[in-house]
Amino acid sequence: MFQYPPINYIEPVFRPPSEAYSLILQVTNGCSWNKCTYCEMYRAPQKKFRPKSIADITEEVIRCSATLGAVRKVFLADGDAMALSFKRLKEILLVIKEYLPSVSRVSAYCLPRNLLNITVEELTELRELGLSLLYVGAESGNDEILEKIEKGETFETTKDALLKIKAAGIKSSVMIINGMGGSRYSHQHAIDSARLVNAVQPDYLATLVLFFHEGEAEFVQSFGDDFEFCNQRQLIEEMQTFISHLDLDKTIFRSDHASNYLVLKGVLGRDKEKLLTMIDGALNSESSVFLRSESSRGL
Question: pTM of the entire structure?
Fold first, then answer.
């Protein structure tokens, strides 16, 4: 039976789908950047960025230790835990190690800029203390798109951060957003995103489709052009271009977020041709290829 952890969360709290069974330890509130025009996650007034004190974190970890039993995975929330200093991150990992000794994986979201002032040696020390996976939302490898969406990153800054993560022996999970450039930039978005992923060879790669609950008009206006969202066929064609340009050794790939019309899973490059065959089937309306309906996309 699921037991809610004894943590004083500031809602809403977000986590990657793969952290569904992890202890969500909120070590910061909100996102220190919070300017990306496509992101609606941390816009609520109560989500203003603020680190949680080490005293409060320690108290919550002790309570979790007393009530939850063996904890295997911990996700450091909110969207920007890696904005904390090396010293604070080390303190948090030591607290987890002391009071939750059964933990085998600690993970967090990571903005590329978070790593500018952290050395490979420091990241290696954090990995030795338990930090083993970082989720990096690259969104696109195209610099023009990144500028338009106010990501505050470039192809090079994202690549450098991911290579630094790899050099420290920490696993990385990279997110690309299908349709991020709209129909006008779709082809170049796919090619440049594949080029970025090829350069860093992440352990995990995932895609979701650009979508909004209520901020669509603001996004379109901020994009600065006559932005047109990709239709279903254009999104699948973009995915075809993206995957066809990937040259990966052994990356676990998932395109199964609720926003996706076509669910794709595999290991790249082993399953590249199989995935491209599925995409061909979707584009040619083969009945054996399942496409989510609008009503079942869970948006």
Answer: 0.94
230 token code pair? 């990709």
Bin 4: left if φ > 0, else alpha if -120 < ψ < 50, else beta: beta
Joined tokens for residue 42: 């941390």
Given this structure, which CATH class describes domain 1-109?
A: alpha beta
Assigned CATH topology for domain 135-299: Transcription Regulator spoIIAA (3.30.750)
Other beta carbons within 10 angstroms of residue 185's beta carbon come to 22
* Burial class of 227 by CB neighbour count within 10 A (0 to 12, 13 to 18, 19+): middle
No. of helices (H) and no. of strands (E), the chain: 9, 10
Q: Which residue ranges make up each domain of the chain?
A: 1-109, 135-299
Residues in the chain: 299
pLDDT tens by residue, 109-131: 999 999 999 999 999 999 999 99
